[in-house]
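Retro notes (design track)

What went well: tokenization of the new backbones is finally stable.
What didn't: we kept losing track of which sequence belonged to which structure.
Fix going forward: every design gets posted as structure first, then sequence, in one message. First example under the new rule, 887 residues:
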């Protein structure tokens, strides 16, 4: 039986592909029913993963679009009871139980508008978007209907679904249930117009919505504009608040990502015409959650610079550069200084007091000789140093420096703040319930009710954070207790502030001596809740303990030196409820060697005295070495510290071929974020040979740099074809780095672009070359498509080709089930005689012929294959490549 040997033909032709982006219009849906005057943009933002959300704060869009709010709706609750919400002819807002016709009068309204509640908008949106939601009537009519689930995401503890209503200046989180906020009414606690309804997963506090705005609605190609990211934060229980700028947020535009600076701003540009939608997001930052913005902010780019662009903006673009002390993997699409720098500065507090927050890098960090270092309110103290010491006479104090407390009021108590913020006590008559205690390692204690059960105690805050023994090294501020409710005249007790967060990390991985020595104290305790100010007033809930995180290869910690205890609940007055106790925080220690140090303070807060019952106790935190601390050795790991950024680094781009023999280079633009102490500058190199690179600044010398984006390029580059940029990144602060998001070079046609037109025609009857079924040991078997007058293939260079070309061929080894016939057994020639044929190679080392610019060139090529003896039977395949390249 003969062997069947085939060759599969694949011509290698370089094609210039023009990719066009199609801008689709944004369509909005408006139901036919309902009042067309009450239309809102409706968004539902849920967790990507409900179980990891407390640590990541990562959101996804469940549904977003415009809805016209129906004038009346039917709502079916989880109890199976159906309700009809409408406005009657007497202009009263009615909720009717459809099973028996029983009605509740919910107040005055307008029959011409209808019962256009946020709940009605949710029902309409669920129909348009095809998602489900669950409504509970457990607290109806007193507190209204409660949304317990949307799109199958149920609440967990105190974390669940809340809503906000937006007007141009505010993103209010109302203190009334969704069935009671009527959209389109000027009697609501938010001025018209009501533009957007946002349903979001999160807590009642510390969860802020984002928006992104631009200083220009239209811009030319290459014209820079500024995007600003802001978050909305309430001021206390009133619900009023303001928009604040947010640094470190990710801005997305047209598939590209940028980072806002410390002022919440990023300077952007687009190199092609389009209408671009912008959105902003930021993950959980240790204290706050951020609901991503919508993508309705638009910038229309048209006209402007008509130059051609070379742009680098993706992670792959920057990773393909030559990098020196620069990292392109930490933030996709960005380039920043790499870790690994050295520090020489020391921080030594020798006696006395000082306040220090934020992240710092030192050689030595010492608190000694009776010194007390305090952490600012709401800040994390994170220190990286080669040597860290707190001597036996000194301390670091972060007590009560976590989330601010929920205030006690004469009415309902204010909710606590932070991840485990508790809910406030409820006021009824002349009595108030106690505020809930804050959660952290576990749930916080509930506040107790007052003399009447309607004066309910607030719920304890929920659990967040992970214990150290899981290998989790995250750190969070402690949450605050909630305020107690008042008696209608006097205020309930304030909640306690949460404990702060102290993070100490040694950078030294050499030697066996301890590089972290803690003989003094480090405390991050929660504060006690306040007592009710009068009879009938509830006590405030206790704050939770914060976090103490210490990481080092070798360390010693004095027994009992660390404390993350919770605050106790405040006492209620006669007839008032007691505040719930807070929960202890987390002590986390990661080490290779550490002395025996088991007894540190993580105790719960006790519930405050109440009438008739006390508030509920909180629960203990985590922190015992024997049960919780993490040994790298026990897990087969070695300590790898966070190092400072290098002081400087460079990025040298690959060369770029403009395609023009004499291009004119116009300008250099970039998008970058520069933190304090950082700098970014550039130089450009051009040439005609793609080999000689001489980087220069704006005056044509190697001693100057482009430091402002959008500047004109040195005219001496004009007339060249190839271009590169070199970016110089630097920092004087080891904890900060510039971040490069995008680089663009513009150029204009200085000549005619190279055009190569090359085709390969297979002359066989089927696709590809075929040498037929042949016996082993036979030589020079011809392709079945060639003959005396025609080759296996015909190669053609078209007359539109405007450069001289070399035409070449190469191929792969033939293979069948891991058995090979080497490519050298195949031959080619430009005539039908095999006598002078050339053996093929696996790379382009042989030239078939040459073509001249603007003249059509055509050549037949004949192929033969020899089959070595003893070759096993099978179908062998190969790939032959042909190309035309500029000489």
């Amino acid at each position: 039986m003969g062997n069947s040997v085939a060759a599969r033909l694949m011509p290698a032709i370089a094609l210039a592909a023009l990719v066009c982006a199609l801008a689709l219009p944004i369509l909005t849906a408006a139901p036919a029913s309902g009042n067309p005057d009450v239309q809102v943009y409706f968004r539902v933002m849920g967790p990507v993963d409900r179980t990891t959300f407390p640590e990541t704060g990562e959101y996804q869009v469940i549904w977003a679009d415009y809805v016209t709010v129906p004038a009346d709706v039917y709502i079916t609750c989880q109890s199976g009871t159906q309700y009809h919400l409408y406005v009657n002819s007497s202009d009263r807002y009615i909720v009717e139980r459809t099973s028996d016709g029983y009605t509740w009068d919910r107040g005055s309204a307008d029959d011409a508008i209808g019962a256009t509640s946020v709940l009605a908008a949710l029902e309409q949106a669920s129909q348009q978007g095809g998602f489900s939601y669950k409504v509970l009537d457990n607290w109806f009519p007193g507190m209204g209907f409660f949304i317990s689930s949307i799109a199958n995401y149920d609440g967990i503890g105190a974390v669940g679904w809340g809503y906000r209503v937006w007007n141009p200046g505010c993103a209010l989180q109302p203190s009334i249930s969704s069935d009671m906020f009527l959209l389109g009414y000027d009697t609501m606690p938010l001025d018209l117009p009501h533009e957007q309804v946002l349903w979001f997963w999160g807590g009642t506090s510390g969860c802020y919505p984002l928006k992104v705005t631009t200083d220009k609605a239209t811009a030319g190609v290459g014209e820079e504009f500024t995007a600003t990211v802001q978050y909305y934060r309430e001021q206390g229980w009133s619900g009023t608040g303001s928009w604040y700028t947010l640094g470190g947020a990710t801005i997305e535009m047209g598939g590209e990502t940028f980072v806002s600076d410390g002022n919440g701003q990023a300077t952007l540009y687009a190199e092609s015409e389009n209408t671009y939608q912008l959105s902003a997001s930021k993950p959980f930052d240790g204290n706050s959650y951020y609901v991503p913005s919508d993508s309705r902010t638009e910038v229309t780019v048209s006209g402007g610079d008509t130059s051609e662009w070379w742009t680098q903006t993706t992670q792959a673009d920057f990773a393909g550069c030559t990098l020196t002390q620069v990292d392109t993997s930490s933030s996709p699409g960005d380039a920043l200084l790499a870790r690994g720098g050295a520090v020489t500065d020391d921080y030594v507090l020798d006696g006395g007091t000082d306040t220090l927050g934020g992240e710092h890098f030192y050689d030595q960090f010492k608190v000694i000789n009776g010194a007390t270092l305090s952490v600012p309110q709401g800040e994390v103290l994170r220190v990286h140093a080669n040597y860290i010491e707190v001597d036996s006479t000194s301390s670091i104090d972060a007590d009560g420096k976590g989330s601010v407390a929920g205030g006690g009021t004469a009415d309902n108590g204010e909710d606590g703040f932070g991840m485990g913020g508790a809910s406030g006590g409820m006021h009824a008559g002349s009595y108030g319930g106690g505020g809930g205690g804050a959660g952290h390692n576990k749930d916080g204690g509930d506040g107790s009710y007052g003399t009447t059960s309607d004066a309910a105690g607030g719920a304890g805050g929920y659990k967040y954070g992970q214990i150290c023994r899981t290998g989790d090294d995250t750190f969070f501020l402690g949450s605050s207790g909630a305020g107690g409710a008042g008696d209608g005249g006097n205020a309930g007790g304030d909640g306690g502030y949460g404990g702060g967060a102290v993070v100490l990390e040694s950078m030294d991985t050499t030697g066996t001596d301890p590089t972290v020595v803690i003989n003094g104290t480090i405390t991050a305790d929660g504060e006690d809740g306040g007592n009710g100010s009068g009879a009938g007033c509830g006590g405030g809930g206790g704050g939770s303990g914060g976090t103490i995180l210490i990481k080092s290869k070798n360390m010693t910690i004095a027994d009992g030196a660390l404390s993350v205890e919770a605050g106790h609940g405040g006492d209620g007055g006669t007839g008032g409820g007691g505040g719930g106790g807070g929960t202890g925080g987390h002590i986390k220690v990661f080490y290779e060697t550490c002395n025996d140090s088991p007894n540190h303070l993580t105790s719960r807060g006790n519930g405050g005295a109440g009438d008739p019952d006390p508030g509920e106790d909180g629960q203990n935190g985590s922190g015992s070495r024997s049960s919780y601390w993490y040994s790298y050795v026990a897990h087969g790991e070695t300590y790898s510290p966070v190092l400072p950024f290098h002081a400087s680094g460079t990025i040298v781009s690959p060369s770029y071929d403009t395609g023009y023999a004499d291009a004119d280079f116009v300008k250099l633009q970039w998008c970058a974020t520069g933190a304090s102490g950082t700098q970014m500058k550039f130089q450009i190199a051009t040439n005609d040979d793609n080999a000689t690179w001489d980087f220069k600044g704006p005056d044509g010398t190697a001693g100057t740099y482009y430091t402002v984006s959008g500047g004109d390029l040195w005219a001496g580059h004009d007339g060249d074809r190839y271009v590169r940029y070199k970016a110089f990144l630097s920092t004087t602060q080891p904890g900060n780095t510039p971040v490069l998001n995008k680089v663009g070079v513009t150029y204009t046609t200085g000549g005619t672009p190279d055009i190569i037109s090359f085709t390969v025609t297979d002359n066989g009857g089927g696709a590809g070359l075929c040498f037929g079924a042949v016996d082993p040991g036979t030589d020079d078997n011809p392709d079945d498509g060639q003959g005396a007058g025609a080759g296996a293939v015909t190669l053609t260079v078209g007359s539109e080709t405007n450069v001289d070309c070399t035409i070449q061929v190469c191929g792969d080894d033939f293979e069948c089930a891991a058995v090979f016939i080497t490519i050298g057994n195949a031959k080619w020639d430009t005539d039908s005689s095999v006598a002078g044929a050339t053996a093929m190679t696996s790379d382009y080392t042989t030239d078939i012929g040459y073509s001249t610019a603007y003249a059509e060139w055509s050549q037949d090529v004949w192929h033969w294959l020899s089959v070595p003896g003893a070759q096993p039977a099978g179908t062998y395949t190969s790939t032959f490549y042909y190309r035309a390249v500029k000489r």
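Added context from the reviewer: Residues 4 and 772 are 6 Å apart (CA to CA).
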